[in-house]
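Onboarding guide, step 5: your first structure request.
Type a short instruction followed by the sequence, for example:

Predict the 3D structure of this protein.
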Amino acid sequence: MIKTFSDSDVSVHGCIPNAGKIYADSTDDLIYAPLEWQKRGLSQTSSGYGRKITSYYKINFKGKLYRLYNTCFGNASSTWFKTKGRTIFVD
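The system replies with structure tokens like these:
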């Protein structure tokens, strides 16, 4: 059973205005849903780095599925999605 996250699962995320953070225990809390070009082994950018890299996963937040994105410019990345103008980071 896929977990459905809600506003009660969102905690404050530092000093970023209008942002929150959700803690997913594992990828079992997410939905594996690669896009067709990802299934063919293609990459969104030639380097693999970027501000909005499409991930293979979706998250169920308040009964709606949201595509997760990654921001990556080095050895670490941030995973996030947007809902109604609010950015929610997934850890």
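Each response can be followed by summary notes, for example: The radius of gyration is 13 Å.
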